Amino acid sequence: MMVFYFFYGLSFGGLGLAAYLQLRRGGELPLRNQLPWLAAFGFACGATGWIDMFLVSETRHDIRQILNILRIIFQPVTGLLLLIFGWRILTQLSPLPSWTVFIPGVLIVPIAFVITYASTTFITPSPIEIPIDIWSRYLLYLPGSIMAGIGFLRQWREQKRFGLQDVASLMLGAGLAFLFEAFVVGLIVPAAPYGPDSYYNYDRVVLDAFTGEQVDLARPYGLTAWLDYQQVLEVTGLPIQFWRMLSAFAVTFFILRGLDVFDAIRKRQVKALENERDRARQAAYESQIVARMTAESWADALVSISRRIAELDDVDNILVHIVENARTLLRSDFIGLAILNGDNSQLELKCCSNANQIELVKSPTVVKSPVLLNILLNRQSYRSLESESAGTLQEMCFCAESPARAAVAVRLDLDTRPIGVLWVARFQAEPYSETDVIWLESLADQVEIAINHGLMTSQLQTLSVVEERGRIAREMHDGLAQVLGYMNLQVQTLEALLQQGKAKSLETELAQMRQAIQVAHADVRENILSLRTTLANEKGLVSAAAEYLEEFGIQAGIETKFDSDITEELAVSSMAEVQLVCILQEALTNVRKHARAKRVKVLLRKEVVDEAEHICMTVADDGVGFTLSDSRRSFGLQTMRERAQSVNGKLGVYSTPGQGSLIECHLPCLQPENLKKQSVVFS
Q: In sequence order, which residues have a C-beta less than 8 Å from that of residue 560 and are 6 or more positions away?
């Protein structure tokens, strides 16, 4: 018997220790909030089992009395802890059905009757520990075990519904173990001369804890137990203590295994969360890659647009390029660009996409969309929302088969004055984001810059024409006008000599006039060549310089040679090309007028100066040379220096009398990083 009590106490004590250790480990398993009550029940029940072990042993009378007092205390405490644990298992692991709210009302009367009946047993002639033991089992242990068993059986159904078969099996075992515990521990009680225990008991002879004498509880009243210790032994061949030990093993096994499985589930959940975190990180990383690629695409597009603007490309070509980039980068089905007409009375379509092609609108097409017209009055950009009706976006897609379902539009301003609208649209109901609005505003800035540069280019061309006319006027005044004035005087001189009959002097004057006419003719031809070369920008710098040098050699009768190591397109601005050709023309003019050279050589090359690429042009002749203080050439040299400085270049002049002269000009190239900086400024 002692062995049964020992293992019974050991089993529940181990259950209490395991629950306590699991509570200290933490976690989110379903039983965690009930673990304190389970641990307390396990320790109390284990202590009760070991007290029973010592009571059945040969123990001194005084120690037995102490153990009986402890058992009287631990027995109801154990039942109360089990009752609390069972109630929490039943009600807190999963919600109860709605109809269960009527159970407490239904049970009030029988529970009150049982409690009243139990209170009467304490005045019957029996040791006090007997009624305490009996009614602790009836009122506390039995309902606590039943509620715990039902609670675990409900968990069995819940876990099966979630597909956790391993947990469901353990919950089923724990539920059946607690129901078995309710039968062998809560229903079969010590023999007593009252109540249902006379039918379900396991021992009619008890030991009085205070006198030490054996008392036969059934014999004084002539009661015969329906199921007593002897009958349990006869039917099963094993005492009731064995079955209680077995139920303790079952409860402990299934509960501990359930705790382990819940821990394993928690670990699987943690692993799943880690996997989800890794997937989220991977998704965030991929999103960053996509965002970086998008940003790079936009940066490349803005750089390309800025380069076209810097190179003073045709405004219409720049606008088409901007519109094409906007449609591609914003994944749009339609894009339009409308500009106010001359008197600002109507908004006319300038450029749009049609059948996947970007084209300029040649015939005037008036834009009547209320949304676009409203943007001209309100500077705030427009972005359609999913809640808007389809009619709001009508008349936004010109010559398109499908209506717009999502759109973004921004206003174009020039010096704070509205000049037009840029918008994009999609035929599918895929809304644009706030980021798309920002990108479209950046492209609108590029449109404004392109239009502004177009106006500035037109003004510069006008100023260049005026400047070129002034230069021609000065050269005609300094050259052709003076020659004509000189010839007028010479004609008068010839008339006088003819009247005087001085034939020899007349021949001398005629020779001088012929020489002056030849000089004037050379100046005029050189001016014509200079004008034709300067204005023929479509030829390119290298071809224009080679052609001009060849014609110059023919006209001036000077042997010329042109060398160039530049094979690709020059990365210099159009203004720099014009100034370089003008510097070449001025240098060759000085060679013709003053150097008396037989040969002249022009070299174009690329070189690196101060870690930056430059275009270098040298003009060398084998003439008489000059000193830098030569007043005849100082005006032309100063003009060449000013032209070089106007495009951030440098001009060097090197000459020695009798050894020819050398002019070297350096003009900076447009570097890629400079273009990127310009694009940032433009955007």
A: 549, 550, 552, 553, 599, 600, 601, 602
Output the pLDDT for position 226: 39
Parallel, antiparallel or unpaired: strands 357-360 and 382-383? unpaired
CA distances 576 to 451, 532, 614, 643, 650, Å, are: 22, 17, 11, 9, 12
Residue 612, beta-bridge partner list? 609
Which of 565, 567, 562, 606 lies closest to 584 in space, CA to CA? Answer: 562
Amino acid at site 405 = R
Name the nearest CA neighbour of 40 among 73, 1, 82, 8: 82
Tell how strand 382-383 and strand 406-414 pair up: antiparallel
Residues with Cβ within 8 Å of residue 525, at least 6 apart in sequence: 555
CATH class of 299-452: alpha beta
Helix 434-475 / helix 240-310 crossing angle, nearest 10 deg: 20
Query: Residue with structure tokens 């109901």?
Result: 429
CB under 8 Å to 133, separation ≥6 — which residues?
A: 71, 75, 189, 190
Phi then psi for residue 297, to 5 deg, are -60, -45
Q: What is the pLDDT of residue 231?
A: 59
Alpha carbon distance 181, 251 (integer Å): 8
- Return the number of other C-beta atoms located less than 10 Å from residue 468's C-beta: 15
CATH homologous superfamily for 549-683? Histidine kinase-like ATPase, C-terminal domain (3.30.565.10)
SS3 per residue for 17-74: HHHHHHHHHCCCCCCHHHHHHHHHHHHHHHHHHHHHHHHCCCCCHHHHHHHHHHHHHH
- Show the tokens assigned to 99: 């109809």
Which residues sit opposite 651 in a β-bridge?
A: 665
Instruction: Determine which of 304-318, 547-561, 608-622, 657-671 has the lowest per-residue pLDDT on average.
Output: 304-318
Look at residue 543 and tell me whether its pLDDT is greater than 60. yes
Mean pLDDT of 5-10: 83
Taking the alpha carbons at both ends of the chain, their separation in whole angstroms is 94
**DSSP-assigned states of every residue in 574-604:** HHHHHHHHHHHHHHHHHIIIII--SEEEEEE
Distance (Å, rounded) from C-alpha 213 to C-alpha 215? Answer: 6
d(CA 397, CA 407): 10
According to CATH, where is 3.30.450.40 located in the chain?
299-452
Contact between 35 and 258 under an 8 Å Cβ cutoff? The reply is: no
- Phi first, then psi, for residue 123 (nearest 5°) are -100, 0
Coil, strand or helix at 678: helix
Q: Select from 607, 611, 585 the least CA-distant residue to 667.
A: 607
- Whether the CA torsion 349, 351, 356, 357 is positive or negative: it is positive
pLDDT per residue as tens digits for the range 608-649: 877 788 889 999 999 998 887 765 567 778 888 888 888 889
Integer angstrom CA distances of residue 222 from 121, 194, 198, 225, 283: 18, 11, 11, 10, 83
616 contact partners, CB below 8 Å, separation of at least 6: 603, 604, 605, 606, 607, 664, 665, 666
Rounded Cα gap, residues 567 and 128, in angstroms: 118
Give the SS3 label for residue 409: strand
**Which residue ranges does the chain devote to CATH 3.30.565.10?**
549-683
Q: Identify which of 251, 244, 267, 265 has the alpha carbon closest to the alpha carbon of residue 18.
A: 251
Q: Which residues contact 347 (CB under 8 A, 6 or more apart)?
A: 338, 339, 340, 341, 366, 367, 372, 373, 376, 420, 421
Kindly report the backbone phi and psi dihedral angles of residue 629, in degrees, each rounded to the nearest multiple of 5, phi listed first: -90, 5
Residue 662, pLDDT score: 93
Environment class of residue 45 by beta-carbon count within 10 Å: exposed (0-12), middle (13-18) or buried (19+)? Answer: buried
Strand locations in 165-218 (E): 205-207, 214-216
Q: Is 668 helix (H, G, I), strand (E, B) or coil?
A: strand
